[in-house]
Write a structure and sequence with these properties.
homodimer, mainly alpha, 752 residues
Chain lengths: 752, 752
């Protein structure tokens, strides 16, 4: 059995290199000075709070996760693998890896924050580099751990299971585990951070009139802890899940090609490339990210600290294009040409075209997101202008901008998908006769493979996105440290500039996160269809699902249509729950802060210290309480749809939820960012500046936007992938119910 | 050719009866006293403003409509009917009928408002009856004109065209015309009313601190005009479209049965019942509404004026159940049993079960909507409570409640659809062999017919819904007249109570509107599939769309998948535009009102009269300017999808837009109503009452909710039906492009 070849081993190898580099950067950060005793004190408080939350959160997740793992063993491993705990273990390892990556990201942020402030004493450059390297550790670790985990599991399981062919579908539990942990981490962290943030702002900024991050605000430490547990751990888990889902989904789609090529007597070492391509591409993409990261340098005269980050990102995109050009040639085009006599040039041309479209999407999505969330452009300016007529028009305009912002990313996604599909389909049409008698004679199959390549390409710059995204909360916390530790005006100014960039990178990462989540979900949807077919084939039911060899998800069938309806509903219910959770949690925080101001009168004069711990506790308890039900709902719904409406309805359910989720996710993320930056625009002096009526209105918008962009929106990224991995894992259960139960049985039972 | 039988003629007959009844009620209203000279003056001002707006709005719609009609003649009539202007005329008549119904509804409201106030001098009962009869005129006229228009066109076209079989698809232009006019009417009216309302509230209530409907507010007349043109003309057009689409869609679906039964030698007078059933059912449903309306009586000691309306509604539902029980038996079950030897009881049982589910849905949707929008229940109470911590938490909680409110209606819709489908499918399975060799041997077809019956049943109470809905703006205007004409405290109190009920009925009508729009859209989707198949069959392309005789909308095909993605996007873009339009228009109104207060200082002291006309003009210009682009976008998108992605992708586009629209529509409608009533709850004394901080926060929520519930939400009802009727009309164009152009041609052209 050939499950891997020489080039495969570069995947775990590059992952190890990235991990070593991450350790190097982490040690480098650790070596930087931590600043004044006051700064050290604040940093320790944030670190303590973060660790305390993560510990409690992870215990809760572990308990629920263990229950799910046992259910998986009973439902899947017993029926599909005769009790060998493939899914159980993969799920457990996936959750644990995802959570560890999140924890490392968060701890790194906590280590980096004060050091970033301190570095600002030396220069803007040093400060930027410190924060960026803190973020880079997260970027490298997240991608590398996913890659390493998948590579090891894939090889180990292949030999352990000893199936006649590679079986990437056996490790889908890893992706499910990652998704499952990610939803809890993102939602819990998101509720935590926004309860603290909204609570701190509403009472501190609006009612008491003290500035942001003022140490007199009892919720200030909770707010900074929130940045770490929400933005770092949350987004880390989110993108860990994206790349994990994309990798395993890509491998499952590749299996179809492997089987067909083997059937055509192509040597296994060549055929297996279609399975391992996603891993190798991810590995070399990571190396490019690492190299590009060295180009982040800030000239002291540079006005815009975003420029070096953007430069590194563009370098990374270009480097990734080169990687794909090379890998497509040496792993796919050349070997296929050698063994089947097709033209390597034609294959390369079409597939590289697909990769190019994917990377083009990664690049243009940043520009679109920037347009909608940066205050230099029309949308945010409109929101700011609407603030002059009060909070209501600010909210209406912000919602309008957020909904408008769904259009361009969707159209670009559509162009990338349809474009890459047509590339692949054209290749398939040209060589239709070559592949006669195999599934590959259908050009559709090649079209789908091309969209898979586009997805891989789009996701190959994830490391850099994460580094930029991780930079955001670090700069935010560093600004908080500067404010609280009273470090002097110019350092505060520097930190403000760096923090503003952090807001931009966070917004961009969300645009990338939502788009890539959509792509990953569609790839997993494809994997679902192919795995469903193969599983049904094993049980002799393939012709039932696919009379002509291809599963049709026909929405004129009512149960399929209803699957899509339930899917479209899910993101709305979930968002209702997550918004409601933040509302409730923030209310608790507001009451706590008000109580402290009332009962400890010395706080506002600065003579008494507020009880920070109590606020941390309020956020923690609220987050843990509120994260469970929505997360379980998302996990259980696909299973219920599959049991009630059948395996094919799950496919339309996935699409319904993905599309509805994409629209809602973009709306929430971009409305939130537009409100945030409209406020910043006014604070920079527009429409009367700070303290004006317009500013008060903009603060309301910002507060509404907080849970939208930091809790509900990002959680939807996770949702659309989680439902896919759940569906993939539960395929055997769906097939069993489809085979053993039909609604007409119920009528027969009724005697009708 | 048999296109009709004796029972058919009861449809136009009942429509005529309803029209006469409407005239009777209108004359009755006209006979009521108009009140004091001051009241007459206000009434005239509102009437004048309404007529002025309607005139300008209708001219704009007419010009655009004429262009569309000419395009239809070129694109459809020339190719499909050899130049005979079937579609051109049907479209024109449909638009004109829809607009006339809207205008009558609006004029009736303008006639009724002051008379309702005046009647309150006599008794609460008289006042309620006056307003309700004003609304009833709208309910009867809208339903009757739709029914009469369809009946006449159907018969006239059948003889004019002289086709061998009845051809209800020829009159689909009528539904398209109605949809087209409805979108303009709803959107334009919605922008008008909310620009005026938001503008009046923001400056008058919030900034100047004067009460609602105070005559010192320059926007007060525009606000009252808005109630007429937005709520009356808008909702009238919306539901005119729903029932028109449902009727014609139901006839097209019925054609399949007609053809199959003729093939089985069933006499044409019996077979045609499947086509004309929707019309006859609608006619007798209208008679039931008329009868039930006589039971609206308000006891002077009755605390809750909602009770008599709810009683009449429940009576109507029960009456409709009886109508369906009888009509299903005499039109379908008995004749089928007589001619084919099937069991009339079994047929009746299953189909009546479907009708029962549809009416159950109509009934339960009111209870659910009431739960989410009435301040006696948890959701609104939560929003009100959240106002204590400021406008931001009020907005967050309101959004959360709105999104939550999507769940129960969707689940009920799902149960009704799946339930009725299963009923039909069971019937089909039992008599599978009976129908062997015809399309009816597939139980799926019977399942779909049963969902059609459920839809008809659900929509059979539309007249009563419209009467209750029309009552709302009349009571609202009557309250305005009471306020402005200074009629004394107890009359104002009575009007406040009646106005509160109006808010409830308006919210309920929207819940019903969205649900019925979803059902009508799904029915039209079915009609689209069947008409596409028949048209393709005529051109010899049927096997291409449906290799096994049944069109599959397979979302694993990328172009079909992308159709759904574009569909999911459309309601978001449209909502962005409509919200933005209200934001811009309201800004203009705010500036105008502020200007008047500034430049005419005597206004606030009550010594000088504000310039009402200027505000009416601001709203009018804004509405006309802003309604065009979004409406055209919705009309053009399905055509573009069909041309680029093909006819089958249009089907998935429809589903994507319908499902995304249902979610967004419920969210916008119910968030808006919850914000509105949270404010009312606080005004009734909760959380500090009027003038408290909580109240200020609730006013912000109410203002955000205004465009959500009165502009964007209701426009989505229209949107989901419009895209269907556009698609149905443009089928020949889609087929032409599918047959003559494929993307691979483009590659060939490039030389690839």
């Amino acid at each position: 059995m050939t499950v891997a070849n020489a080039i495969f081993w570069t995947a775990p190898l590059t992952a190890l290199i990235a991990i070593f580099a991450a350790i190097y950067f982490a040690l480098w950060v650790k070596k930087q000075p931590r600043g004044t005793p006051k700064m050290i004190e604040i940093q320790d408080a944030v670190k303590e709070g973060s660790i305390a939350f993560i510990k409690r959160q992870y215990s809760t997740i572990s308990i629920i996760g263990l229950i799910v793992a046992v259910i998986l063993w009973l439902a899947i491993d017993l029926t599909r693998y005769g009790g060998r705990p493939y899914t159980f273990l993969a799920f457990t390892i996936g959750s644990a890896t995802s959570l560890s990556a999140g924890a490392i990201a968060m701890l790194m942020a906590a280590e980096t924050n004060a050091r970033t402030t301190e570095a600002a004493r030396r220069s803007k450059h040093d400060s930027l580099i410190t924060a960026f390297r803190g973020g880079l550790v997260m970027g490298l670790i997240v991608v590398a751990m996913s890659l390493l985990g998948i590579s090891i599991l894939y090889v180990v399981y292949s030999y352990w299971r000893d199936a006649p062919t590679p079986s990437p579908q056996d490790i889908i539990g890893f992706a499910f585990g990652a998704s499952f942990a990610a939803l809890f981490a993102q939602l819990g962290g998101g509720i935590y951070t926004k309860a603290a943030d909204v609570g701190a702002d509403l009472v501190g900024k609006v009612e008491a009139g003290i500035p942001e991050d003022d140490p007199r605000n009892p919720a200030v430490i909770a707010d900074n802890v929130g940045d770490a547990v929400g933005d770092c751990a949350g987004r880390g888990a989110d993108l860990f899940e994206s790349i994990t889902g994309e990798n395993i989904g890509g491998m499952i789609v590749g299996l179809t090609f492997y089987l067909a090529l083997i059937h055509m007597n192509v040597p296994a070492e060549i055929a297996v490339n279609f399975i391992i391509f996603p891993l190798v591409a991810r590995g070399w993409g990571l190396i490019i990210t690492l190299l590009a990261s060295f180009f982040v340098k800030l000239d002291e005269n540079e006005e815009d600290p975003m420029r070096p980050l953007r430069f590194a990102y563009n370098l990374n995109v270009i480097g990734a294009i080169v990687v794909f050009a090379i890998l497509i040639y040496i792993m796919l085009a050349k070997p296929l040409a050698d063994s089947l006599g097709i033209s390597a040039g034609i294959f390369w041309g079409f597939m590289f075209g697909a990769a190019f479209l994917g990377l083009g999407l990664a690049w243009i999505i940043m520009i679109i997101t920037d347009y909608y969330t940066n205050y230099h452009y029309r949308p945010v300016k409109e929101v700011a202008a609407a603030s002059q007529t009060g909070p209501a028009t600010n909210i209406i305009t912000g919602l309008s901008v957020g909904m408008e912002s769904t259009a361009l990313p969707t159209i670009m996604l559509l162009i990338a998908l349809i474009g890459s599909f047509i590339f692949g389909e054209q290749f398939g049409s040209i060589y239709k006769t070559k592949f006669a008698g195999t599934p590959l004679e259908n050009p559709l199959v090649w079209g789908i493979y091309a969209t898979t390549i586009a997805t891989m390409a789009m996701l190959s710059v994830t490391g850099m996105i994460l580094a930029m995204d991780g930079y955001g909360p670090i700069a935010d916390q560093a600004g908080g440290v500067a404010e609280m530790a009273n470090v002097g005006e110019d350092i505060r100014k520097t930190m403000e500039a760096l923090d503003a960039v952090g807001n931009t990178t966070k917004a961009l990462a969300k645009g990338y996160g939502m788009t890539s989540a959509g792509l990953a979900a569609l790839l997993l949807f494809q994997a679902y269809l192919e795995d469903l077919y193969r599983e049904a084939e094993k049980l002799g039911l393939a012709s039932w699902y696919a009379p002509d060899g291809h599963i049709k998800v026909d929405i004129t069938r009512p149960e399929v249509l209803m699957g899509a309806l339930v899917g479209a509903l899910l993101p709305f219910i979930f968002t209702s729950m997550s918004l409601g959770a933040v509302g409730r949690a923030a209310k608790g925080m507001v009451e706590e802060v008000r109580r402290q101001f009332r009962e400890i009168p010395g706080i506002l004069e600065g003579t008494e210290k507020p009880d920070y711990g109590q606020c941390v506790d309020v956020s923690t308890r609220a987050a843990l309480k509120e994260m469970v039900v929505p997360s379980l709902l998302v996990t259980i719904t696909p299973v219920l749809v599959g049991i009630i409406f059948g395996a094919v309805a799950v496919a339309s359910f996935i699409i319904g939820a993905t599309f509805s989720g994409i629209m809602l996710g973009f709306t929430l993320n971009n409305s939130g960012a537009a409100w945030d930056n409209a406020k910043k625009l006014i604070e920079a002096g527009a429409y009367g500046g700070k303290g004006s009526e317009a500013h008060k209105a903009a603060v309301v918008g910002d507060t509404v936007g907080d849970p939208a962009k930091d809790t509900s929106g990002p959680s939807i990224h996770v949702l659309v992938k989680l439902i896919n991995t759940v569906a993939l894992v539960f395929i055997p259960v769906f097939i069993w119910f489809d085979a053993h139960f039909h609604i007409s049985d119920f009528f027969k039972w009724l005697g009708l």
